[in-house]
Automatic annotation (TrEMBL):
Pfam families: Semialdhyde_dh (PF01118), Semialdhyde_dhC (PF02774)
Naturally occurring in which organism (per UniProt): Chromobacterium subtsugae
PANTHER family documented for this protein: ASPARTATE-SEMIALDEHYDE DEHYDROGENASE, DEHYDROGENASE, PUTATIVE-RELATED
Protein family (similarity comment): Belongs to the aspartate-semialdehyde dehydrogenase family.
Keywords noted in UniProt: Oxidoreductase
GO molecular function, one term: aspartate-semialdehyde dehydrogenase activity
Domain Semialdehyde dehydrogenase NAD-binding, chain residue ranges per copy: 6-121
The protein's enzyme class: oxidoreductase
Protein name: Aspartate-semialdehyde dehydrogenase
EC number of the protein: 1.2.1.11
Length: 336
């Protein structure tokens, strides 16, 4: 593995960008230097990288010829404009945004599921990382594929951190305002999120499916080789700061042994919680701050297995997969 690799994290001040930097430091990513890069609004900012404080470079002034790899976590607009520039300069790009996920020519990778997609990509590859709501769900469904997945019905309960720091601050401000008997300002979402549930994330299409529902359905289907119509998805935003949850019902080809399902989930790296553990279920609060996908309320009804998933949307849903892809690509030197 190369130790001369220089790496840029674009969107370094975002929630996902900060988590990526934290994981890179914790896992001793073999980079000679790490650059923090972000948009002009973050000029003058610093971010933590292990014991270091990194000055934030402006993306419109950054020379990508200085790095062999760039991890993008700054949103689709920044990725569309600057990821091609990074590749033209010779850098491998790992992109956590919606910019390239639907592009058939760009591998969509969750390393625990389809790391083989990272082989033989050539110089300056571009790899898309799935939606943070997709990957934990896909990990659970992938474990059940050998049992024959017929259909799956999924309801998501998504934390406001999925919308970024401004949405979190707005929910906090709304909560304070309501306790103070003041009007709660609404900017981040169409309706108030504090003490509320919003059953729509993103714009609706002609069928009434939201942008987030299409994303989770189509990306999960692509990762697992399933027909999109076999997945029914409803996405809701809930007044939780961190941690997504999923209520999942999976219809299999035939009746099954629940203990076998449990073992398959565990073998896939998911943390299965029994009735005698953690009060019998795991909440977003308990899932926050770690890289695990937690499974609880596991049960069977005929051919249908039902489960409750919880995971830290920033760390377990997004950042760890960006870092693992970067580790794999770095191991396929030379990158520079």
């Amino acid at each position: 593995m190369s130790t001369s690799l220089q790496l840029a994290v674009v969107g370094a001040t975002s929630l996902v960008g900060q988590a990526i930097l934290e994981l890179l430091a914790e896992r001793n990513f073999p980079a000679a230097r790490v650059f923090a890069v972000d948009v002009a609004e973050q000029d003058g900012s610093t971010v933590s990288f292990g014991n270091l404080e990194l000055d934030v470079h402006m993306v419109d002034e950054f020379n990508f010829e200085n790095v062999g790899m760039a991890i993008f976590a700054a949103g689709s607009a920044v990725s569309r404009e600057y990821a091609p520039q990074a590749r033209d300069a010779g850098a491998a790009v790992v992109d956590f945004s919606s910019a390239f996920r639907a592009d058939a020519g760009v591998p969509l990778v969750a390393p625990a599921i389809n790391a083989a997609e990272l082989e033989d990509l050539g110089r300056a590859p571009l790899v898309a990382v799935p939606n943070c709501t997709t990957t934990p769900l896909a990990l659970a469904l992938a474990a059940l594929l050998p049992l024959g997945v017929q259909r799956a019905s999924i309801a998501t309960y998504q934390a406001v951190s999925g919308s970024g720091q401004a949405a979190m601050e707005e929910m906090a401000d709304q909560t304070t305002a309501l306790f103070s008997h003041r009007d709660a300002e609404v900017k981040a979402y169409d309706k108030r999120i504090a003490f509320n549930v919003l059953p729509q994330i993103g714009e609706l299409d002609e069928n009434g499916d939201s942008e987030e529902e299409r994303s989770v359905r189509d990306e999960t289907a692509r990762l697992l080789g399933l027909a999109p119509e076999s997945l029914e998805v409803t996405c809701a935003r809930v007044p939780v700061f961190f941690g997504h949850s999923w209520a999942v019902q999976v219809e299999l080809h035939k009746e099954f042994d629940l203990e076998q399902v449990k073992k398959r989930l565990q073998a896939a790296g998911l943390k299965v919680v029994g009735r005698d553990q953690h009060g019998g279920y795991v909440t977003p609060m308990e899932a926050t701050g770690n890289e695990l996908v937690w499974v609880s309320r596991l049960r069977a009804h005929g051919k249908v297995v039902s489960m409750w998933l919880s995971a830290d949307n920033v760390k377990a849903g997004a950042a760890i997969h960006c870092v693992r892809i970067a580790e794999i690509l770095a191991g396929q030197s030379p990158l520079m």
